[in-house]
Amino acid sequence: MDWSRAKTILILSFFLLNLVLGYQLWTTRSDLLEFDASTASAAEELQRLIKSKNIQISAELPTEVPRLKEIVVQFDEKLTSDKEITLETPFKYSPLLSKGAPRDAAARAAIPNMDKYQYDPVLSANGTYMFHEMFGSFPMFEVRLELKEQNGLITSYKQSYAEVKSENEQKEQKVISSYTVLRSLIDNYLPSGTVISSIKLGYHGQTFDSQTMFLVPYWRVVCNGDIYYVHALNGAVDPPQRNKK
Questions:
Q1: Are the C-beta atoms of residues 232 and 219 closer than 8 Å to each other?
Q2: In whole angstroms, what is the distance from residue 33 CA to residue 85 CA?
Q3: CA–CA separation, 164 vs 175, rounded Å?
Q4: CB 238 within 8 A of CB 142
Q5: How many alpha carbons fall within 13 Å on the CB side of residue 90?
Q6: Segment (H or E) for 226
Q7: Is residue 194 within 8 Å of residue 221, measured between CB atoms?
C-alpha cells in the first residue's frame, strides 16, 4: 500500500468533512437569525406552537439579543474549594434584601467578593441559597457560591471564584433570541403539557483542567424539573440535566 497516498487521501477527506460541517453550521445559524429577524413573527410562531402542544410559560421571556463570544476563565485557588467553610459568626440573610441593607452588609463582609455574584432562585432550595458569579451582566453558570442556612442563620458557604483570563479571538456574534430557543425545544424536545419556568442567557462550559474553564454563551431553559442548555450562537441543544432542587 502507498502510505503517502493514503495519508493524503485521509487529509483531504477530513478537510472536506470540516467544510461540510462548517457549511451546515453556517446554514443553521443563518436560518436561526433569519427567523429572529422579525421579533413579531417569532413571537407569533411561538404562540402557535405553545397552543398546539399545550405548553405553559410562567417565566418572562428575555428580549435582548446581545453580541457575545467565548471566554476563558481561571479559578482563584484561594477562593475556590469543594469543601464547606464554616462561618465564625452566622448571620441572617434574604436574597430579597436590597444592596446596602445591614444584613446584606454582613453577608458581604463575611463572604469574599459577595457583590460579584447574582442570586439564582432556580437552583436555590431547602436551606441553600445559590449564586452565580457575573461576567458583565451575564451569569457564569458553573462558577457558584452556595450559602447554607440552619435555623434561620447562614452558618457556612461553599465558593468558586474565577477571573476572565482571555476572550476568544473570534469576533462577537449576535446570539439567537429566546423565541428561537423555545421554538426549537418545543418542536424537538418538550412533550405536551410542559411548563417552562425559567429562561436565562449566560455562560456555560467545560473544565480544561482543575483551574481553567472554557465558557460559551448559552441559554438555560428550566422546565418540569429539567435544565436544557442551548448554545446561544448556533442553537445546539445539550442533553437535559435534572434540576436537583
A1: yes
A2: 46
A3: 20
A4: no
A5: 12
A6: strand 226-231
A7: no
The pTM of this model reads 0.81
Cα–Cα distance list, 153 to 85, 123, 128, 156 (Å): 14, 19, 11, 9
pLDDT tens digit sequence for 14-48: 344 444 434 344 444 444 445 454 566 778 888 88
Q: How far is CA 195 from CA 46, 95, 188, 190, 214, in A?
A: 14, 25, 15, 9, 31
- Given a contact cutoff of 8 angstroms between Cβ atoms, the answer to whether 161 and 134 are in contact is no
As a whole number, mean pLDDT of residues 138-162 equals 96
Buried b (16+ CB within 10 A) or exposed e, 211-222: eebebbbbbbbb
Mean pLDDT of the chain: 83
